[in-house]
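Need residues for this backbone.
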């Protein structure tokens, strides 16, 4: 990769989440050179963020001259409110990073550290808009769907611009454009109120017994590289471990049924989650009847669900990684998984 490093400046885009820290190193042409994702359980303390920053920097082929940051980590419950979260995250990064540092403030553009307190509400949870802005520069009409470990972002694209109904988390949740459902960390009790098993419908235990990662380990959809979160019970991630946790959600033990039955249960949870997402997509599309969905662009660890939704709705599907210029296919794939980090770096380079 060293032969790809230019004499010109390098930009590192950071996406500070509550569970993961993602970073994308790009050159002056917008080419992704290295993308890194590390676990960062921010709710356990800001020292976890500091450690994760060093872990990322240690994996880079060269140190960047410019850092640009977007975040959702201000939602971690160690912070009393979003303003405190934004300010404390910004402070940690300012102490850890050398070089020019700026923050993505959504519609306000890029701002300096000194302005973060004034624009904190714009900085908070704006990573989805960075991704949507990047995609809209390549897709005239359509819908961008980024499904991650915890949430799904649904953004209409109209005339090469993002066309969301809301910008804050509250407004987007009300509009159905931010859906708290993901493919790794979502507790299964939040996926459906009841589920079919053995020809009967079961109410679900209102306990954190299992997560969607258990579902997608059994169905084979979840890439092992994206399966970074701890399990609900702290035990292993084998198919048997996942099936045991699924069984507990409906009051059963693993030995109560054969492996095929637990696989069917996993598929039942998967389709319950697909139903929730499809309803949100149809709601979004109804606002733009002239363009409808256009092309559906999928991103994130759960982009396999976007592909299935596109097939169900008879819409053209595009992987976001095909829109990304990268050093090689592996970097391109990771840039798609960590899209906000790549997008915020790309937008900063274009803005310069």
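Answer:
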């Amino acid at each position: 990769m060293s032969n790809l490093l230019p004499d010109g400046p390098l930009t590192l885009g950071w996406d500070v989440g509550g569970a993961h820290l993602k970073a994308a190193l790009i050159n002056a042409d917008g080419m992704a050179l290295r993308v890194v994702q590390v676990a960062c359980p921010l709710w356990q303390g800001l020292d976890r963020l500091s450690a994760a920053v060093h872990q990322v920097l240690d994996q880079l082929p060269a140190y960047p001259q410019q850092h640009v940051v977007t975040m959702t980590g201000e939602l971690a419950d160690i912070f009393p409110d979003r303003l405190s979260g934004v300010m404390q995250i910004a402070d940690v990064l300012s102490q850890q990073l050398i070089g020019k540092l700026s923050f993505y403030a959504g519609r306000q553009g890029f701002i300096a550290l000194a302005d973060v307190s004034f624009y904190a509400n714009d900085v908070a949870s704006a990573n989805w808009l960075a991704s949507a802005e990047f995609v809209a520069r390549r897709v005239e009409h359509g819908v961008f769907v980024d499904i991650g470990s915890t949430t799904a972002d649904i953004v209409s694209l109209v005339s090469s611009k993002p066309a969301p109904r809301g910008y804050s988390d509250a407004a987007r949740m009300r509009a159905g454009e931010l859906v708290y459902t993901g493919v790794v960390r979502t507790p299964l009790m939040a996926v459906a109120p009841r589920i079919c098993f053995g020809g009967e419908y079961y109410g679900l235990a209102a306990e954190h017994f299992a997560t969607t990662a258990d579902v997608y380990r059994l169905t084979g959809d979840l890439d092992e590289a994206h399966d970074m979160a701890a399990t609900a019970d702290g035990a292993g991630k084998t198919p048997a471990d996942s099936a045991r946790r699924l069984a507990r959600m409906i009051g059963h033990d693993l030995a109560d049924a054969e492996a095929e039955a637990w696989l069917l249960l996993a598929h039942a949870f998967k389709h319950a989650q697909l139903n929730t997402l499809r309803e949100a997509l149809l709601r979004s599309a109804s606002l733009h009847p002239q363009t409808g969905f256009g092309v559906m662009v999928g991103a994130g660890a759960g982009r396999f669900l976007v592909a299935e939704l596109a097939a169900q709705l008879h819409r053209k599907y595009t992987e976001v990684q095909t829109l990304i210029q990268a050093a090689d296919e592996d970097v391109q794939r990771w840039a798609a998984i960590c899209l906000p980090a790549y997008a915020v770096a790309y937008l900063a380079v274009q803005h310069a």
